[in-house]
Specification:
The longest helix has 19 residues. Helix 3 packs antiparallel against helix 4. 35% of the residues are buried. This protein has five helices and twelve strands. Helix content is 28%, strand content 30%. Strands 6-11-12-10-9 form a five-stranded antiparallel sheet, covered by helices on one side. A three-stranded antiparallel sheet has the order 1-2-3, covered by helices on one side. It has 225 residues and is an alpha+beta fold. The protein starts with a strand and ends in a 7-residue tail after the last strand. It is elongated and about 60 Å long.
């Protein structure tokens, strides 16, 4: 989930997964709050200020949303205290599942930007695995940013799939926030994919969560559909 409060950018990420495990790695988590980063280079607002008032109004607007399409962009207030809040849930999580994630994320909002998680275990054939996993992520990016990938009149900017690599199936997903157009989201994916070599090469699972885009891959199915 990505939020933007005025000129203060906030990243709060929540995973909705299938299993509960004790460690913060790239393994499955159930409604678990993962991480947040915030940027307070623009300064901090004061308690009781108009800015704080509009933040609270925006958050209450989110809380009253029905979460049916898993995405919303909300504005409250007027310049110079106007507040913008945006959230987006993972492509397979809508309605009550999305609401539980956003509620958890809002409760943990803070101020710093992207991060990654990896499975601590290595694969056997790292060179083949890295090459084919990168190819799968690229294929999903092309699908996610395809101009025909739409629901109604809005770009989905999400894709998921799997691929056989050696003796294992690799499952993956990519997603960008819906405020981006297809060309911008492609550039966003390209940027976060640069982190693959830093965090995830040869690992049995990994995810990178950026301010506007994220990807994940595992050796087990982690999506609902």
């Amino acid at each position: 989930m990505i939020s933007k409060f005025g000129s203060v950018h906030i990243l709060a990420v929540v995973a909705i997964q299938l299993l509960i495990i004790p460690s913060v790695s790239s393994l499955n988590l159930t409604n678990a709050y993962l991480h947040h980063k915030c940027n307070n280079t623009e300064g901090k607002y004061s308690h009781g200020s108009a800015f704080e008032k509009y933040i609270n109004l925006a958050l209450r607007a989110i809380d009253s949303d029905n979460y049916l399409n898993g995405f919303a962009y909300i504005e409250r207030g007027e310049d110079p205290n106007k507040v913008f809040v945006m959230y987006q849930c993972r492509g397979d999580s809508y309605g009550s599942k999305c609401k539980s994630c956003i509620s958890a994320a809002i409760s943990g909002i803070d101020y710093e930007n992207d991060f990654y998680l990896t499975n601590p275990n290595d694969v056997n054939d790292k060179e083949l695995f890295n090459k084919e996993t990168s190819a799968l992520l690229e294929e999903l990016t092309n699908k996610a940013t395809d101009k025909n990938n739409m629901i109604g009149n809005k770009f989905v900017l999400y894709a998921a799939g799997d691929k056989r690599i050696g003796t294992k199936n690799v499952y993956a997903m990519v997603q960008c926030t819906k405020d981006l157009v297809t060309t911008t989201s492609a550039a966003c994916f390209e940027w976060i994919f640069k982190m693959f070599s830093k965090c995830c090469e040869g690992k049995q699972g990994g995810r990178v969560l950026g301010t506007s885009c994220n990807f994940r891959y595992e050796l087990y199915p982690f999506l609902r559909n």
